[in-house]
Amino acid sequence: MTEPDKRIDDDWKKRAQDEKAKIARELDASADPVTEVTDAPAVEGDPLFPSLVQQIAYPALMALGQIPDPRSGERMLDLNLARESINLLSVLEKKTAGNRDPEEDKMIRDLVRDLQMAYTQTAEAAQRSAEDQGSGNPAE
């Protein structure tokens, strides 16, 4: 009884070793850096991605006074809305990293950078204006 069990056990071990060697050969073949670069599928752009980015960026531009409100035609300043919109774009940029084509990558990266700079400049100007108004009329 022990002899046939041993033969079955030996067959199982040989098959497991053969399978392990086969997997190791496949991994070695797929680890070739030249084939990884050339065989990598190109990230294809989604035609809706720029529209999504614009829909998120538009309120930030309005809130920074860069463009007028389409309903009233007036420019407004709402730093909280601008900050939230810029933060949403930053999250979208981080969560879609590696899934954008180069054009989309440049578009969102540049837009986030430009909006952050505009926010900083606008916030600093608003703070200076508030300080000037507060110190300009001490008699009141």
Description:
The protein is mainly α and 140 residues long. The protein has two domains: 2-39; 49-134. 74% of the residues lie in helices and 0% in strands. The chain has five helices and no strands. The protein has helices spanning 2-30, 33-39, 49-63, 79-95, 102-136. α3 (49-63) packs antiparallel against α4, α3 (49-63) runs parallel beside α5 (102-136) and α4 (79-95) runs antiparallel to α5. It is elongated and about 95 Å long.
What are its keywords?
140 residues, mainly alpha, 2 domains, elongated
Concise structural overview:
The protein is an all-alpha fold and 140 residues long. It contains five helices and no strands.
Share of residues in strands:
under 5%
Count of domain modules = 2
Which radius of gyration do the C-alpha atoms yield? 30 Å
Helix and strand composition category: mainly alpha
Mean pLDDT, to the nearest integer, reads 82
Helix content: over 70%
Number of distinct beta strands: 0
Q: Based on Cα principal axes, name the global outline.
A: elongated
First-residue to last-residue Cα separation: 107 Å
Ranges with pLDDT <50 over ≥5 residues?
Answer: 34-38
**What is the N-to-C succession of helices and strands?**
HHHHH
Number of helices: 5
Q: Note the main sheet.
A: none
